[in-house]
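Sequence in, structure out.
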Amino acid sequence: MEREYGSDYTMPTWAIILWCIIVLLQIIGMWKVFVKAGKPGWGCIIPIYNVYLMCKIGGKPGWWALLCLLIPFFIIWVYNMISKSFGKDEGFTAGLFFLGPIFWPILGFGNAKYLGPYGDPAAFQAHQGKGNFDFENKQQL
């Protein structure tokens, strides 16, 4: 007796709907986080540009987006800088990385306020003023 099955590569409709809901939650949460940080919310849906914006929110230079794309481990560092920029700790960073669809909306819709890169604008300015080369302005600081 031969059994007939559908294609081995089909997903059930409920799984597709669930996946779309999860992706939508993460996009909405990231959108709100970007807006809180003074960046365009729509930037979260543009590949590569969203990584660039996350680097800027976290206080890293824009060329770090290239590092994140070439060496994916660097995105964890950027997530950590984003959580610090909103006054959160390393535990929240782990949440952003492992449970993004839950933690991005918490950050976006919660009462966390953008404190500036690194979460401490004075520390950020002090770090920037140490003679570092700013690749975007192409000048010695």
